[in-house]
Every structure is written in structure tokens, then in C-alpha cells.
Design brief:
Blueprint lengths: L4 E6 L3 H17 L4 E7 L4 H7 L4 E4 L10 H24 L3 E6 L3 H10 L4 E5 L6 H6 L5 E4 L13 E3 L15 H7 L7 E6 L6 H16 L2 E6 L5 H4 L7 E4 L5 H7 L2 E4 L3 H10 L3 E3 L9 H11 L4 E2 L5 H14 L1 H12 L6 H13 L2
Parallel strand pairs: 1-2, 1-4, 2-3, 4-5, 5-6, 6-7, 8-9, 8-11, 9-10, 11-12, 12-13
């Protein structure tokens, strides 16, 4: 039997890293003898998270363009050229059968180098509105696995496969973990639990909102698991107490989802896909500071299916407390949102993506 080799690249945020790891894990199940190599951006979180998951990773000297004129932007052409050279060297040495990109700075030069070397490439596009890198890479890619309909506006139609986004398999059955999760956080099973997710780095505006509303939550007998992100932990850890658990990063996502009654979240693509699987009532507060406002578009796709509530950052001061209180008191609305968001789940996304990769190595 042929010993297959796979290179995966995804990084910058958990939303790019965890899909790549999920795909690698599924490939490993199907091809236990396969060799894997990850390629990321130096100094980004993938350099820690990927080895923790048991895979080797090499770092490229690459970073994204800033929105204003900076020294980093002036360095970009040099970094890109060096990263393309390094990517070619990695591909020549490792000789992969397929290269898979899940987004992030490093996936651009890596997939470009792989395409130029005639190696099959797969793009896993998580968002409803793709970034410029994946639009450019799509011309040479063999397959583009997407999570939303109507992406033929951006990609060659014949290459698109609607798979959904990979999610952690431990989220598939969280209901059975409810009691264990509440005990893990030392919370009261008789009180409602609000889970606040601002992403791995944190969301300033959401943190400010939770700080402002904290006494309001506690007065309504609501307990909080508050992921404030590593950039903001020092600022907000002072609020940690019996009914408020402030954390920078969550290792056991299955536990926080299992414990939660209501969730406040950003609308990054991976988070949205996970929340569809989890099936809890969600208030999305999209980040307005992302390319093409894609988080709002991600959230709107769920809202259009009557599966979530969407509040823009500009609406928080006037509307949040009214919307939250109404949802907390309306069990019927909670059940309706849960049922509708769950209908959008694609629990077999990882297997379907791997099926597309397998087709390429069997050509």
C-alpha cells in the first residue's frame, strides 16, 4: 500500500487551525501510515497548537497586509518572496500527494508553490464571503470545499463542493456531558448559564459589554463563563468569582457548550459551524473589523433561517439588555432558535472534505 503524504496549512486564528487539525485527524484514521506536515506563519498561534495536537509544523516568515501604511506592509513583498521560496523547498523535500489550505497567511504561498509544482491542492473555505487569497488560489485548486451556498460568484463553479466546515467531533453529543460540565466549572445546576465567546484573541467590544452588564446578569440569577481572550485576560480576570468564570482560552469546548443555556458569540465561520452542531440559543455580535464584513454575512445566513439573533456592535448600547432579557424569559423562543440552528448543522463535514482529498490521491 502506498504511503501517502499530506501538507496542511491553516493559521492565525483557531478558526483556521482547528479545521486543519480536524482534517488531518480524519485522514490519519483512514491512512494510519500517512505522513503529515503543517506549515504556518512564524510567531502565530499555530506554532503552539499544532504540535500540541501531535503534528510537526514549519513556520514561514509571512504576515498579512495591514489596512494602513506600516513598516510591515513595506516588508510584505520581501516576506512573500521568501515564503514562496521556502514553500517550494518544503514541497520539494516532503513530496506531498496533496496540499490542503484552510486559510491564514501561510496557506497563500504554500498552495501557490504546490500548484506551480503540479501537486493537487484543496481549499477549505470557511466563510460565506471568501478572502482575496482564496479567490486567487481557486483558479489553480483542484477542489474547493465550502460551507455556504452561492459561492460560484467567487470560485469556479465546477470545483465547488458544499461540505460544511470541520468541527471537533467531541461536540456531536454534548447533551450527555451537561452535568459533568457544570461540575467542572463549579457552577449551580439550578441557575441559567451564559457562555460568552469572543474568539481566541478576544473581542474588545464584547468584553466591554459583559463588564457593563455584569451586575444585570447576576441580578437575574445568570452565571457566566466568559472567554475574554488572551489579549484581555489581565484586564478582566478581576471579575472572576463563584458565578463568573473568566478565562483567556478554552481547551474543553465540549464542556462550555454542554454547560451553556444561552450563548453570545462572534460569527467567525468555525464558531458558526460549531454552534449549528451544538444547537443552543445564540446572540451573534459579529466583528465589524474583518475583510468584507464576512462575520455579519455568516451570522445573517443563520438569522435568515430563524436560527439565531443578530446584534451589531452599534446596536449594543440601546438594544442588548432588552433583547437578552426577552430571550432569557422566553423558553419557547429558546427552543425555536435551538431547533432551527440545528437544522443547518453538517456533522459529517470533515469526512466529506476528506472524501474529496481521497479522490485526488486516487487519480
Amino acid at each position: 500500500m502506498t504511503k501517502y503524504k499530506f501538507i496542511l496549512s491553516g493559521g492565525g486564528t483557531g478558526g483556521h487551525i482547528y479545521p486543519a487539525i480536524a482534517i488531518a485527524n480524519e485522514l490519519k484514521l483512514q491512512f494510519p501510515d500517512a505522513e503529515f506536515l503543517f506549515v504556518g506563519a512564524k510567531d502565530k498561534m499555530e506554532m503552539q497548537k499544532v504540535p500540541q495536537a501531535g503534528y510537526e509544523i514549519k513556520g514561514l516568515w509571512i504576515a498579512g497586509l495591514q489596512r494602513k501604511l506600516t513598516l510591515q506592509n513595506l516588508m510584505f513583498p520581501l516576506k512573500l518572496a521568501k515564503s514562496l521560496l521556502e514553500s517550494r523547498r518544503i514541497i520539494k523535500q516532503f513530496k506531498p500527494n496533496v496540499v490542503i489550505g484552510t486559510g491564514g497567511f501561510a496557506s497563500g504561498p504554500l498552495l501557490k508553490a504546490a500548484g506551480s509544482a503540479g501537486i493537487p491542492t484543496v481549499i477549505q473555505e470557511q466563510n460565506s464571503f471568501p478572502g482575496i487569497t482564496n479567490k486567487l488560489l481557486s483558479k489553480k485548486a483542484n477542489a474547493i470545499c465550502v460551507a455556504y451556498d452561492n459561492l460560484e460568484r467567487f470560485f469556479p463553479k465546477e470545483k465547488i463542493v458544499l461540505t460544511g466546515n470541520p468541527v471537533r467531533q467531541d461536540l456531536i453529543d454534548i447533551d450527555s456531558k451537561h452535568e459533568e460540565a457544570i461540575a467542572f466549572y463549579g457552577l449551580d445546576p439550578n441557575k441559567k448559564i451564559l457562555l460568552v465567546l469572543g474568539g481566541s484573541l478576544g473581542a474588545r467590544r464584547i468584553n466591554q459589554l459583559i463588564e457593563k452588564e455584569l451586575q444585570n446578569f447576576l441580578s437575574q440569577d445568570v452565571q457566566i463563563i466568559w472567554q475574554c481572550g488572551k489579549l484581555y485576560f489581565e484586564e478582566y480576570k478581576k471579575y472572576n468569582q463563584q458565578n463568573v468564570k473568566v478565562v483567556d482560552f478554552i481547551e474543553r469546548m465540549d464542556f462550555v457548550y454542554a454547560a451553556a443555556n444561552v450563548i453570545i458569540s462572534r460569527a467567525g465561520a468555525s464558531s458558526v459551524s460549531e454552534l449549528c452542531i451544538v444547537g443552543k440559543p445564540v446572540i451573534f455580535i459579529p466583528s465589524p473589523n474583518v475583510a468584507e464584513d464576512h462575520q455579519t454575512k455568516n451570522a445573517q445566513a443563520i438569522v435568515d433561517a430563524k436560527g439565531a439573533i443578530l446584534l451589531k456592535e452599534s446596536e449594543l448600547d440601546n438594544e442588548f439588555s432588552i433583547v437578552f432579557e426577552a430571550l432569557l424569559k422566553d423558553e419557547g423562543k429558546q427552543k425555536q432558535l435551538s431547533a432551527n440552528i440545528k437544522k443547518l448543522a453538517k456533522p459529517k463535514a470533515t469526512q466529506d472534505i476528506v472524501a474529496e482529498i481521497v479522490k485526488l490521491i486516487q487519480l
